[in-house]
Write a structure and sequence with these properties.
Elements lengths: L13 H8 L8 E9 L3 E7 L4 E7 L6 H16 L7 E2 L8 E5 L2 E9 L11 H18 L13 H12 L7 H20 L7 E4 L8 E3 L5 E3 L6 E4 H15 L2 H15 L4 H24 L1 H4 L6 H19 L14
Antiparallel strand pairs: 1-2, 2-3, 3-6, 4-6, 5-6, 7-10, 8-9
Helix pairs in contact: 3-7, 4-5, 4-8, 5-8, 6-7, 6-8, 8-10
C-alpha cells in the first residue's frame, strides 16, 4: 500500500463534515455546510432544516493542543453563564465538545459554535465604539472570576514580543539593518515595560484579538464576541491596545480611541499605569502581527510575506515610534531613540 505523502494544511470537505461530523451534534438536521474562511483555523457556516445557522470551527493541527482548546471553551461557557454575549460552543451528543478528526497532517478538532448575529463593527461611528468598549469591559469584569483546569499560552513578553521576533528574523536575513532595528526596538519596549513596572499592570483573562471586529453588532447595539483563538491570561492594557492599534491603521484613532475608552470606563476602570502602557503595547501588537504572518507563511505561501510587506509594516513601526513612542505628539519620550 503506498505511503501517504506528508501534508501540513489540508482543507476538509464540507460535504464530509455535513455527512460525518455534524450528526454528532444535537442541532437537528443540518442541511448545508459551506467553507467560509481558511485562516489559522478553518471556519464553516452550517445551516439546519429550520434555517438556524451555526459556525463549525476546525482547529488546525499543532496550532493548539486539545487542552488549549478546552481552556478556550471553558472561558466561553463561563462568559455565557455570566451574561456576556459570546458565540459559545455546543456539546456533542456524548457530552463532549471537541470532535476529533484524523486529517492527513495529524489530528484536528471540530467544535460547533452558536452564530453571532449582527454586522461587523465599523470604525466610523463614535457611539458604536463606545458600545464596543463597554462590551469589552463587561467581558473583563465577568472573566475576573474565570478559572480552568486546562492550560493555555500566557500572553506575556515571550509570547507577544520575543517569539514573534524570532519568526520574523529569518525573513529579514537579507536586510540586516531592519533586522537589527526591530530587535533593538523590541528590547527598548521590554525595558520600558519593565520600568513601569510591568508586574504592577492588571492581568486577567484577555480575548487577545479585539481589533474592532471579531464581533457582531445587532440592531439594539448588543456586541457579541467570537473568535477567541488568541485568548489567554495577559495584560488588560494589551487587550485594549489592540483596538487602538487597529484604529491607528485605519486613520481614525483620534475619534475612535477616546470613544472606546469612554465606553470601557462606563463599566469598569483601568488604572493610569495600565493606560500609560497602552502606547507601548500598540507597538508590541504590530510586532506580534508580523510574527503571526511570518509563522503562517508556510501554510498559505510566502508570496505575500515579501519585501513589500516588510517595507509597509516596518514603515508603520518607524512612523509610530517617531510620532508617538518618542513623544513628538505627547511631549513625553516613552521609548528612547537609538544612540
Amino acid at each position: 500500500m503506498p505511503e501517504h505523502f506528508s501534508s501540513i494544511n489540508s482543507t476538509l470537505s464540507a460535504d464530509a463534515l455535513l455527512r460525518v461530523v455534524l450528526p454528532a451534534f444535537s442541532i437537528g438536521a443540518a442541511t448545508r455546510c459551506r467553507l467560509h474562511y481558511i485562516g489559522v483555523n478553518d471556519t464553516y457556516v452550517v445551516t439546519t432544516a429550520d434555517t438556524k445557522r451555526y459556525v463549525l470551527r476546525v482547529y488546525r493541527a499543532a496550532w493548539h493542543t486539545l487542552d488549549n482548546i478546552l481552556y478556550e471553551l471553558d472561558a466561553l461557557l463561563h462568559l455565557r453563564d455570566s451574561g456576556v454575549p459570546v458565540s459559545f460552543p455546543l456539546p456533542l451528543r456524548n457530552g463532549q465538545y471537541a470532535y476529533p478528526i484524523e486529517a492527513p497532517e495529524g489530528q484536528r478538532y471540530a467544535v460547533l459554535f452558536t452564530y453571532a448575529d449582527g454586522r461587523e463593527p465599523t470604525y466610523e461611528d463614535r457611539s458604536e465604539a463606545v458600545q464596543y468598549g463597554r462590551a469589552v469591559a463587561l467581558m473583563h469584569e465577568a472573566s475576573d472570576a474565570f478559572s480552568s483546569l486546562h492550560s493555555r499560552r500566557t500572553l506575556d513578553e515571550q509570547e507577544l514580543l520575543y517569539s514573534p521576533l524570532s519568526k520574523v528574523g529569518p525573513f529579514l536575513a537579507s536586510r540586516p539593518v531592519d533586522q537589527e532595528y526591530l530587535a533593538r526596538l523590541s528590547e527598548r519596549l521590554r525595558v520600558r515595560l519593565d520600568a513601569l513596572p510591568v508586574a504592577n499592570l492588571e492581568k486577567g483573562f484577555c480575548h487577545g484579538d479585539l481589533h474592532g471586529v471579531n464581533a457582531g453588532v445587532d440592531g439594539d447595539g448588543t456586541v457579541t464576541f467570537y473568535d477567541f483563538d488568541c485568548c489567554g491570561t495577559g495584560w488588560r492594557a494589551y487587550d485594549l491596545a489592540v483596538f487602538r492599534w487597529s484604529a491607528i491603521l485605519r486613520g481614525n484613532e483620534k475619534d475612535m480611541w477616546p470613544a472606546y475608552l469612554e465606553g470601557y470606563h462606563q463599566r469598569r476602570s483601568l488604572g493610569e499605569l495600565d493606560l500609560s502602557a497602552v502606547p507601548l503595547f500598540v507597538a508590541v501588537r504590530h510586532i506580534w502581527t508580523m510574527g503571526l504572518n511570518a509563522s503562517i507563511a508556510g501554510l498559505f505561501g510566502d508570496s505575500w510575506v515579501n519585501m513589500s510587506y516588510f517595507d509597509r509594516e516596518l514603515g508603520f513601526v518607524r512612523r509610530y515610534e517617531t510620532e508617538i513612542l518618542r513623544g513628538s505628539q505627547t511631549g513625553e519620550q516613552i521609548v528612547e531613540a537609538d544612540p
